[in-house]
Amino acid sequence: MAVKKSELYSSLWESCDQLRGGMDASQYKDYILVLLFVKYVSDKYQNQPDALIDVPEGGSFKDMVALKGKKEIGDEMNKIISRLAEANDLKGVIDVADFNDPDKLGSGKEMQDRLSNLVGIFENPALDFSKNRAEGDDLLGDAYEYLMRNFATQSGKSKGQFYTPAEVSRVMAKVIGIGGADRQDQTIYDPTCGSGSLLLKAADEAPRGVTIYGQEKDNATAALARMNMILHDNPTAEIWRGNTLSSPGFVDGTRLKTFDFVVANPPFSDKAWRTGFDPEHDEHDRFADGIPPKKNGDYAYLMHLIRSMKSTAKGAIIMPHGVLFRGNSEGEIRKNLIRKGYIKGIIGLPPNLFYGTGIPACILVLDKEHASSRKGIFFIDASQGFMKDGPKNRLRHQDILKIVDVFNAGLELPRYSRFVPFSEIQKNDYNLNIPRYIDSSEPEDSQDIEAHLNGGIPNRDIDAMESYWQVFSSLKDELFTPNERENYSDLKVETNQIRTVIRDNAEFIEFKNKVLERFQSWVDRNMPILVGIEVEDSPKSLIGMFSESILEVFGEIALMDKYDIYQYLMDYWDTVMQDDVYMLVTDGWVANNELIPEALLIERYFMAEKTAIEALENEKEAQAARKEEIEQENSGEDGVLEDLRSDKGNITKGSVLSRVKEIKEDPEFVDELAILIAYLELIEQESQTGKKIKSELKNLNEQVAIEYSALNSDEIKSLIIKDKWLGALWEDIGGEIEKISQTLSLRVKQLAERYAATLPDLERKVNEFNVKVEAHLKKMGFEWK
Question: From CA 769, how far away is CA 707, in angstroms rounded?
């Protein structure tokens, strides 16, 4: 049976536990990723003629497995990696970690056990890459992504720069339009590529692939990027080592090589950007629009990127917000770039997304092809859309999709997005600070002084809920009645009945049924795909189809945000459905308790047995409650049960029986005897009921085990698809409907309670309290003045 993806990721992360203690995450990532690399190329290329990677004799993962438990394992692993590196011109790339370093791995038996355990984890049969799965859907890509995210999280601010969050990478890839690339000889370039994650995410959007170029100045990180390219089936990608600004690696003579697509996540506010060259005499003519300040290199990287773009190129770069509004030389550069029309859009991101810094950043979307005809810049403020993920924030699926949909369609949404003409930008002295053009703050909830004085709910507040009244047109009249004063209304029902009135409203029920119909139409559309899942299908292609269709189906339902519904599907995919589908495309439709939890089988086939067991459990609880009641009534200083308690404070059957024997012939203790006998009967009843429950559970478990093996293909599919997947999704969507009624009822209740007590009412109550206080003081002999 296939290992669940989530379990596989956890086991990989557990491999890191073998290395903790002697090094931090920025170091042990080198060991883990080298082992992942050796395992991958060994599975995929060993004994393959004309393979892109040569796996030599004595240079494979199997050779490492043979070393488990041997004293010289560290030194021999280094030799295996060295042979693989030499055979493929990968010296300095995959041999960056010393597996025989006692300072990091311990010495003697400690190193021997640690490395043996580490190799053993990668020996997991689930890590078999000999048949790399459908493109873009192999285990390796997801496992690598999982490891890199965790390495970056663990490494802290100073060492997390090697990784751009995958969610941000996806946004950048989709807004530059690389999905329209139709030739493999089209190029993509990242001048500060780190581990290459941004490059790969962007390239993955191209349906036929593109040619990849990247440069990274840190040697170890450049080696990581080179490994990453091979691990993701891009062995021909060119990764250049060196400082992009002082020594650009991709040049045609003195001119920079230009590319079809460019992406970058350069170091923020690099203070040493001038190291190694003089920008005032730049042979590559990158700074014609101005020279960035000496202690801040943000614009240096941006101008290098623009210079590396073909005349038809598209690009995106992550920048700190300061580039949008800082003045002096940066202000002049910004004005020149705006006038040339290179900046197509600006996307403001949430804070604390990136591993190297907690400050908020933005994406500058670049477009040279349409620069001359550009009339303005498209702004998005996406700073409010994120989820907490440990110490960092993270874009959700719905946040990514909304940004991409809105940007690519140029949709203007209140408090979120807006196209700003150059004339307005010019009036603002070419300041691009997002809040100048988009106010993303929620409107303040205004207070009505007259309503506070005289009561009534302002009609303007009721009218502000017009989106609800358009759907539930009769509900407004069910909840409110006109006040004697113009422009004010009163609540017709008690505040504790508001939710009930909403739920029972005929149009609300109709709305709920409409949502159910939409969901059912989505089910009907996708059922042939769901029941048709086969071995070797691509899970990522499947979720792509499901998610795209759910957006279409829920795209035009008032009061419901299609992106929220999409998120429900994607959350369920991430937590449950992805693992299920992965097992289905590996093992087929088999009945086991991973795919079909026992609870589902019981709900479908054994409800009578379940109900009987629940009745017995209720009976046992009632017996236990009666027992406790007798204990409470007969405990304490004079209680007949108090002296029967053990040192641990409990009352045993044996202690009660002993006391019964002592007093059963003595008429003086007849009342105590009755209590003890009643208590004994409850002990016996509870015991017998417990035995019945145990027997019935055993019988049920045996029947369930038999039922698993008896299920046919149609029953298996029905249980997994209808009972498990669709049941969970409908529960989520039903919760969204409930959220609508709850939000409306809370708002109505808030307004009603806000103006329920008028100023005269409050003054009258104050006077009443004053009278009462004065009367009490007089009784106590005090004079009230």
Answer: 72
